Amino acid sequence: DKGNHRHFMLKEIYEQPIVVAQTLRSYLRPLDGQVALPIPDFDFADIRRVTVVACGTSYYAGMVAKYWFERFARLPVEIDVASEYRYRDPVMEEGGLALFISQSGETADTLAALRHARAGGQKIAVVVNVPTSTMAREADLLLPTHAGPEIGVASTKAFTCQLAVLAALAANLARARGKLDPRQEREIVRHLEEAPAAINAALAYDEAIAVVAGQIAGARDVLYLGRGPDYPLALEGALKLKEISYIHAEGYAAGEMKHGPIALIDDHVPVIVLAPSGPLFEKTMSNMQEVQARGGKVVLISDYDGIQAAGEDCLATITMPKVHPLIAPIVYAIPVQLLAYHVAVLKGTDVDQPRNLAKSVTVE
Ligand code: M6R
């Protein structure tokens, strides 16, 4: 049932404040200022490295998590798409935790990679949305997301719920390894608790985002740029746009532009820049200016401060609430999803069932 919404995708985008809060509820103990996993006695102490494996949007959630596992838990993290991981003879050392992320829990490549890692002696953690799925059954450490059924082929609410779980897992790993003092843990919990309200505030820009969609819907190619934990968001933005609007789109790490892709820039290629104010803001801004100097038409997605500082010469700006960098990838997922959605609606595509795609890819 789509409720009052025209598409499942839009309904699912709007469910995010509630389902992210629901998911966080089973991973946070706000009164104690602590994270708590559903399996409290899982032994993280001798984990020496994490391997993250997934496909598509779930893979991008894993890319964000890599930043968090490294930063908070100081663990080496390797990440790969499942279809590569399973065939490349990866080195699996003792004390490895292999983490699989999947909405459906049935994706053939991810499942095969999971079994490959199990055979290699890795402990298996699974972040999964369908609790009765095959991956859920095969996990040593089952970390459910509580997004509810996701019908739209384009993944939206599953992604933000995956990020919520992965942030809690990062904090948990950090504490288990003695890298997080109680004050830091309280801070992380406090920031995560702010996510649902911040998502709500981001959703309030829906109409403004629909207007921006009108400005880019005629483009043949669109680029997305981001840095650090917002770089995977650029990849996710490009995937979302191509999958439902059929516009060619690519995401790049902002700093990679001048190593090739900047040659594509002219005034027909909109460039979506994801840049919350924070430690990486200035760096991203100088990449944005390089694009503008070559006639590129920029859509800047930032908070009020960021837009005040750098929004002037942009084709358009989209204002996000000012949030802590930890939750920025969760909050900035919203404009990325809405932009793709509105472009697809303008183009008249089948938003919930885009051509050539299936909700769950159960063949190799
Ligand atoms: O069910 P999974 O999370 O394992 O699915 C992985 C990908 O097939 C999925 O995220 C796909 O990329 C989506 N259609 C993206 O919107």
Structural key phrases:
EC 2.6.1.16, glutamine amidotransferase, cytoplasm, 5-stranded parallel beta sheet, 12 strands, transferase, binds 5-amino-5-deoxy-1-O-phosphono-D-mannitol, aminotransferase, alpha/beta, 45% helix, globular
Radius of gyration: 20 Å
Q: Looking across the biggest beta sheet, what order are the strands in?
A: 4-3-5-6-7
Order of helices and strands: HHEEEHEHEHEHEHHHHEHEEHEHEH
Average pLDDT taken over every residue: 96
Number of strands: 12
**Total helical segments:** 14
Which stretches of 5+ consecutive residues score pLDDT under 50? none
Proportion of residues in extended strands: 15-25%
What's this, in brief?
By secondary structure, the chain is an alpha/beta fold. Helix content is 45%, strand content 17%.
Q: What is the secondary structure topology, with strand pairs?
A:
Blueprint lengths: L7 H7 L1 H10 L2 E2 L4 E2 L13 E6 L1 H18 L3 E5 H4 L10 E7 L5 H12 L3 E6 L5 H5 L2 E4 L12 H20 L5 H12 L1 H9 L2 H11 L4 E6 L4 H15 L2 E6 L16 E5 L6 H13 L3 E7 H7 L5 E5 L7 H20 L17
Parallel strand pairs: 3-4, 3-5, 5-6, 6-7, 8-9, 8-10, 10-11, 11-12
Antiparallel strand pairs: 1-2
Helix pairs in contact: 2-7, 2-9, 3-7, 3-11, 7-8, 7-14, 9-14, 10-14, 11-14
The structure holds 5-amino-5-deoxy-1-O-phosphono-D-mannitol (M6R).
